[in-house]
Amino acid sequence: xxxxxxxxxxxxxxxxxxxxxxxxxLSQSSYVNEKVEKYRSKFHFTPEAxxxxxxxxxxxxxxxxxxxxxxxxxxxxxxxxxWGHAKSKNLLKWEHMPIALFPDELGYIFxxxxxxxxxxTAGFGKGAMIAIFTYHDPVKEKEGKIDYQTQGIxxxxxxxxxxxxxxxxxxxxxxxxxxxxxxxxxxxxxxEIWQLILVAKDHVQIYxxxxxxxxxxxxxxxxEDNPPLGVWECPDLFKLKVDGTEEExxxxxxxxxxxxxxxxxxxxxxxxxxxxxxxxxxxQKESQWIxxxxxxxxxxxxxxxxxxxxxxxGWMSNWNYANExxxxxxxxxxxxxRELKLIxxxxxxxxxxxxxxxxxxxxTEVLKEEITGHFPYDFQYQNLQQSxxxxxxxxxxxxxxxxxxxxxxxxxxxxxxxxxxFSIDRSQSGNVNFxxxxxxxxxxxxxxxxxxxxxxxxxxxxxxIEIFINQGQYVITTQVFSNENxxxxxxxxxxxxxxxxxxxxxxx
Length: 508
Ligand code: FRU
Prior knowledge:
The chain has 508 residues and is mostly beta strands. The protein has 3 helices and 36 strands.
């Protein structure tokens, strides 16, 4: 496997009835100063330096959302895994913390989760933060053995700053399965027991424990994929109420490496079904995906949130090119945190990824317009790559939106009402040649069906574009490495389209 080997201060609006032109001189100069770290996200989490992949140990405790993450502190490509650590009060502004978990004689520290042991079930102390992770033994792997992944635990009595590994690790031995990893532990309130969900090559296994140390396997979940999807990774299991009803369903999340996901590989899908505390079942016949872009992988949700919200964060990259993205000091960012909601749309359950509520607190409106009937519509705004563009489109036929700059970097978004296909094209978005797989995955699409009206939110940061369709019913997250900041927004179609509530908000 590849990896294992391997800103508005002045806005000048000149609004003709159909055309808006803005210049933002001050932020232009700050942009020049920031060129040193050209692609550094402004409001997405990035490590200060070096390599990062999956979010790990997402847990809320005493006013802070903790974010641990797969981290290699000695380089900008994947290497012996540690758990990096950051914390935040609002999920948007992050404080960097010391490395939490280091590799030891049992191996590298692969992905996993964290819980708060309020009742001291494990005996490490009341309220201990306990991490449950995969040990990946590189020595055994090199020797050609297959049982090199086991599960271990560690605890912290100071809110995740310092950690002690449990002396009797591993707590779950390898049963002779090569890919056996990524434990997500949840507190099952109905059964009043800890449960652990992990992936074993091509299926999920569920375990019970009273103390987080002894685990008993209780069930497996398999799904007949034809053709089979790549290795199963990073599972999650949680209950959600169907919006507007009292009905409760369970959602199982699985990420898939390899090349078989519709985005070309590194995709995260979900199943909606029932869970009786032992076995997960679903009537779902086909895969549904958390995100239809290339860059949202290995995402999982927070444990122990104060308001019971289901907050999801994904790694905003893709194994097909992650090791070669054109950044120097650090590599990779996390997606924006999203609140997952469940809806029933025409008899089909859909997991929505909504922009978190308090994202509002870091945005300021800089333009609001009704542009109904005025075409062509375009405007320039210097800080497009630190903004949120929102509008509602009544589409008769096709919608085409282009983001571009004077360097002719171009990112296009389109919707064809006849086919129901919503798509993006990043083939000319900027630097696309750093890796052939990045180029190969230039076109991404999702069939959203025939919609008379679309609500679209586009969130741009220094090297990413996140598109939320109809409040996150469908999401397309992609990395972009434009040669210059995108400054131009253009709605191409002349006829048959109405755009309402058009707004641009600057972020931070
Ligand atoms: C997912 C993954 C996990 C593994 C980790 C290793 O991206 O492959 O399955 O635990 O990355 O860094």
